[in-house]
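Sequence, structure tokens passed on for absentees:
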Amino acid sequence: MKENNKKLSESLEKYLLAIFDISKNNSNIIVKDVSKRLGFGGATTATAIKTLAKFGLINYVPYQNITLTKEGIEYIQLKLYRHNTISTFLNQVLEIEKASADKNASAIEYSMTQDVLTKFVHFLDFMKQCSCAEPKWLNSCKHSLKNGQIPKKCTDCVSIKGGCKGCHSIT
């Protein structure tokens, strides 16, 4: 997925996401719709809407319909892709309950710098799409998370001079 250079604050992303969600069922979006969806005041929402328009993510003229620009749609698609990739990893690999994985995925996204977030999502995406069988270390990690201790095969492996002979290898 194409990287974009803008990184909005969490608050502005919430406004953009609200516009995106509303647009699925309603093509006549006004500030009041966004304000109502998020539970914020009209003046606060209008300020955020103007900022999104200034960034070129939406088309907005006061008292007219709000629409997403091509760049706004691409921004949302990338944001949702990143979020879903992180949430899926937390849920399926670390076996975190879905609602908690979703909440924590958001926290992770906003705690990382753009370059780290990009590389992190790339790694997760690579691991998901890689044609190799599941890395051996992944099952060992899941065992460790479940049982609170490193599997014997791993402790034996690490104690061998020269390090691990395969159970932790990514290649």
User: Anything to note?
Assistant: The mean pLDDT is 85. Residues 23 and 97 are 30 Å apart (CA to CA).
